[in-house]
Fold each of these.
Amino acid sequence: MKAASAPQGKPSADVPGGVAVELRGITKRFPGVVANHDIDITVRRGTVHALVGENGAGKSTLMKILYGMQRPDEGTIAIDGETVELHSPADAISRGVGMVHQHFMLADNFTVLENVTLGAEKLYGIGAKARAKIMEISDAYGLGVRPDALVEDLGVADRQRVEILKVLYRGARTLILDEPTAVLVPQEVDALFDNLRELKSEGLTVIFISHKLGEVLSVADDITVIRRGTTVASVEPSQTTPKQLAELMVGSELPSPETRESTVTDIPMLTVDGLTLCAVDADGMRRAVLDDIALTIRKGEVLGIAGVEGNGQAELVEAIMGMRTPDGGTITLDGRDISKLPTRTRREDGIGYIPEDRHRHGLLLEAPLWENRILGHVTEAPNSRRGLLDPSGARRDTERIVAEYDVRTPGIEVTAASLSGGNQQKLIIGREMSHHPKLLIAAHPTRGVDVGAQTQIWDQIREARREGLAVLLISADLDELIGLSDTLRVMYRGRLVADADPATITPEELGSAMTGAAAGHLETAEGPEEDR
Ligand SMILES: Nc1ncnc2c1ncn2[C@@H]1O[C@H](COP(=O)(O)OP(=O)(O)OP(=O)(O)O)[C@@H](O)[C@H]1O
């Protein structure tokens, strides 16, 4: 590990293979915040370079600068040895820098070919030449992309490969990936890392942002740690442990994880029975996306649902929240049938909700933090008093949440959009936990959250569980699912197909169960039927 103040990079001439990207003295200020302060990074060509740091450290800002989405206030960018001015992503792409965002930007009802060529028709047209180019790239890097597949039929990992291919198709030699593994199961992560190794063996360069420190150490050639907007260390992966890396990020020791204890009672808090929901698919066929779901979550219990994204988890959550009308079945909360109640009443009855897509359901991005405090809880204290909205109550309580949940922000008047992703998530969790829910529906509660904040959030959920909170946990982070759940069930094609014991199952076994394979540790509730 190099000292914090030491210059990060050597002059290009000294670096074998050359330098793909060199950032020098990058500073970027926003009102009340210095997001990047005098950052230096040298990215060697043909390597995987990881960028780690706690929430709000300045990673995304730095990458947006490299991708031409934002202009630095100070500093220089050199790509392949040439100092450049980037005014837009198009500028960055023309210099060979491409970015794959965390939220995929593909059009579902188009084919892979259509998606890849959209906006890049000038390169190879939209016909045979384009198809041949896609196949060539796909074969060269082992991406396995089929040009005629409909994007809506693809799983998350395949969509990600299409996004990577799209960037390569446009001529990128340096790829920026923003938390690429957050949505993948372990087997898919391995496959992605194989793809990254292929890319670098062909001389391409990958820069990726991640909070999963074990993964970072397994795939990165170089690691840069950013803390509070500045580079604090340049780390040699082979000589560092995840714990050391975490400590470099947060600047202090992490609390050790708590041992498993059971707080599960006999009292049912949520009972779902015979829940069925149909949707019409692209061929006009009615298909059950939720098929006769039955589950009970008791007071003090965390029920984890494992499943590859798109197997009905989102629909289950939305049906329980009253955001979708099921075709059959009942939902009972604390003894009361809530099946026909509107979402707001369900929330007032004691359901807390951490949504999967925080931009669509969790936040009003252009509104200040204190207005976001009110969202979903308009009629409840401290946002409301004697039936009237109470902005000063909401403001005071937002200050409290910001302090208690360590939301890094210059104040509560800034917009939610100006918070870093992890800090947006902490605000939502703070808001939902503040209403002392009976049932918490938590979809990917720590997605995008740094390891320090993740430990805190897990502790907060465990603490509330000890006091009787029931939790429905959906997560792509298998360590989180196994670590937090008292009961684990596997969802596959709209059905709960198996139960797993969180005390004994490994992330790899759970990963195979999720992809539909039978794993030794699983008690199959009902075998998954093909072609339903
Ligand atoms: N458009 C903006 N306006 C105002 N402040 C911003 C804006 N974008 C980022 N910031 C601030 O800059 C700082 C760095 O944010 P950034 O998103 O770069 O962090 P990050 O390291 O990517 O965090 P995370 O891990 O949570 O995604 C934060 O304090 C954030 O609130």
Note: The radius of gyration is 24 Å.
Amino acid sequence: MSLNPQKPRAKMEARELTLRYGPKTAIHKVSLAILDRQVTALIGPSGCGKSTFLRSLNRMNDLISGTTHSGAILLDGTDIHDRGVDVVDLRRRVGMVFQKSNPFPKSIFENVAYGLRVGGMKDKAELATRVEKSLRGAALWDEVKDRLDESALGLSGGQQQRLCIARAMAVEPEVLLMDEPASALDPIATAKIEELIHELKATYTIAIVTHNMQQAARVSDRTAFFYMGELVECGPTEQIFTNPREKRTEDYVTGKFG
Ligand SMILES: Nc1ncnc2c1ncn2[C@@H]1O[C@H](COP(=O)(O)OP(=O)(O)OP(=O)(O)O)[C@@H](O)[C@H]1O
């Protein structure tokens, strides 16, 4: 039997993407593929444009007035800025989890059901099934199944972050963007999130911004190193950490700056 592992395809791809906040260029001519069902870590010193790049992938930067861009971002080969693309649908397909968990001041159940209700789902049994599936997927079900009607604000920080992941997953996105999802958490909660990311990549394509080198090395298949708004290099995580092509990458991953 011949083993012919197919090269993973690009789920998303930035081509020569430049993004400006007013006159300030935040990222410059970045070309980067986010491969299907892999975890891509975005690393680099503060202010290098990691979050800007991440937010570009589901057009969150559109919400900041004065932003302009050139170049293209493709999702399954279609430019996400094409006139025919509905931004609400794009953000359903490309979900996001933020640094600081941001549950709504509603019950645990309603937090997860929120996107489904907005999408028009009314059937109670269907909602309950989807909420349970998402909470199980986010490895939170066992901890909250007996208190679904309690406020989400009563959960611990780590639980709140997993709830936000469940909320993002409920609408069945294809890509999950995570902006430092564990930076506010203790080591145990962080380990849970990392374990979860590992499980989620069987289903989702994931891009994660992290300041934590060990975390990037643990959770990602590929790592992209940004520096002063440019993509310096991207490759298999092991190669970036042990045998980078560029001196700047080596200096950063070995802790010489940043
Ligand atoms: N809303 C904004 N308006 C103006 N400039 C911004 C805005 N957001 C970011 N910038 C600037 O764009 C550049 C890139 O910022 P970005 O937040 O993408 O970097 P980052 O690598 O994610 O940084 P950090 O690791 O500190 O979060 C920085 O110079 C920043 O000051």
Note: The chain has a mean pLDDT of 93.
Amino acid sequence: MATKALSFTLSLNDLFSSKSPHTASSLSVFSVRCSAGNGERPWKNSDARLVLEDGSIWKAKSFGASGTQVGEVVFNTSLTGYQEILTDPSYAGQFVLMTNPQIGNTGVNFDDEESAQCFLSGLVIRSLSISTSNWRCVKDLGDYLTERNVMGIYDVDTRAITRRLREDGSLIGVLSTDNSKTDDELLHMSKSWNIVGLDLISGVSCKSPYEWIDSTKKEWEFSAGEGPRDTFHVVAYDFGIKHNILRRLASYGCKITVVPSTWPASETLKLNPDGVLFSNGPGDPSAVPYAVETVKNIIGKVPVFGICMGHQLLGQALGGTTYKMKFGHHGGNHPVRNLRTGRVEISSQNHNYAVDPATLPEGVEVTHINLNDGSCAGLAFPAQKLVSLQYHPEASPGPHDSDNAFGDELLSSGARRIKYLKICDKSSEQGLASSDFHSFH
Ligand SMILES: NC(=O)CC[C@H](N)C(=O)O
């Protein structure tokens, strides 16, 4: 018996020795599981608390950065794409809870970043994958979050928290790894913070204008091949813009100038662009009246396209109001109906606010609705050469059903066209009837 036990130990040692033929990732998995011997337990106990403003306390295990952080908790139902979610600047001020129970299994890579930074408050997941396995992986999720100073927690009942958010609406929470803080202190912090009314755009927008060049890489292009470059000049307002919006514009032949959120409308108009894009961005659209003012000064003068925050700002600039939804839409599986064509797109979404269509002036058309709750998902105002979507046609992550919001298939001339810029065609300059507009779809 003793001999058998000894040989078993030896073969395990062989297995984990650096000379064994196993891959680095499988070794690191096993070494994490078997690394006791330094006096510490080989498992981790709860070392973090998420305290919600409703008084509930959720014990969890921390990964990534440590500390104390406040934010609004929202749940995201995407099955894939956690890296794009982590780098979507629209999550500034929010904890993202992933309803998919296992996160981290594909690690992170250099190509899937949607911005240069992670602006979210933290990540909440059920199970952190103990191994990473993907040909593009350069780093595991925990190391990535630590480097970017983002707090994460796992081994927390994400299903129970999601049900609470669905029933009671979005909640403010405080996440802490600091044992010196009492539950009451953390509860007080969460009750005294509010995301409504905060200008979160100014913290995520670029500081000065720049040119964007990259289009979608050939191997990832899912639409018709790349057309001629620089056919149109688009000025893109960066309210927290995702890189894939810029890549898709470039793929459809645009030269793009990205400008900060505070860039004056007069300077934009001086550039004489073919179109202006108002991007996605974090927080409450009512907290950024300066951006609404800029939008007001541009619409009607040049074709415009609004995405998510951009759509909400357009709604306000037209005289409409926005409201906060109960728990918003965050995920890659939201059905949207295009009311003009009847076509249903499965879309990528991330928003907590929506435009109230009843408050919009005559002539503004609701073009899309979210089929989960009937909320307004798209607008058009042909008289002002304006289109906008509440969701994310650029996806990343998410399905590509809505990509045609950017452009049409290759035209006979060989040039790809940007759909919203078609409304500035010479033929329609004399006056654009809404029936003309319909024909663009
Ligand atoms: N993705 C976005 O642009 C988000 C828009 C807005 N901040 C909201 O939460 O509704």
Note: The longest strand covers residues 321-338.
Amino acid sequence: MVEIGSQQSEKIAKVDVFQQGFHRGVVATRPFSKGDIVCNYHGKVITAAAGRAMMQDMHNEPGYPFFFKSGPRDMCIDAQTFPCDCRPVADTVGRRINHSSKRPNLKPLHCVIKVDGEDRDVILFRALQDISVDTQLKFDYGVNRKSFRGEGLDLQWLDE
Ligand SMILES: C[S@@+](CC[C@H](N)C(=O)[O-])C[C@H]1O[C@@H](n2cnc3c(N)ncnc32)[C@H](O)[C@@H]1O
């Protein structure tokens, strides 16, 4: 498993953030095989209700919360609040991965790991196919215009 805990380990993971104007994304800088764990989605785990409240205050800026279910609980990874307590300086790559419903090459995988005897929710990204160097990483956010910040928004990228 690739553990993303520091800038150093992101280099080991061999993925990198690119920037085009204001828009960022993530590319592979080494090949991955189908089934490989590529990186994680780093951030503080909060309730989904807290995540939704946070999104209501957002307007046109990029959104970084990741909503998931952990057993019966609706939860959210808050990658919006930056920098986070445990990563005071470096950005994290997971939150820079863009959406594709038509051609995703990653799939998020929810795991619960023990850290200091306590359960911790973690989101890892598994490669859906072989991924070559310089390929942009994308996953299906699983949202549509209705579920992503309400109806009637002109968000063409959700159809990609
Ligand atoms: C988790 S962030 C992804 C990284 C983001 N592009 C950035 O510059 O930091 C999610 C935001 O990225 C943008 N986004 C996601 N997928 C996109 C795509 N396929 N094309 C254009 N923008 C996208 C949207 O603004 C969305 O709110």
Note: The radius of gyration is 15 Å.
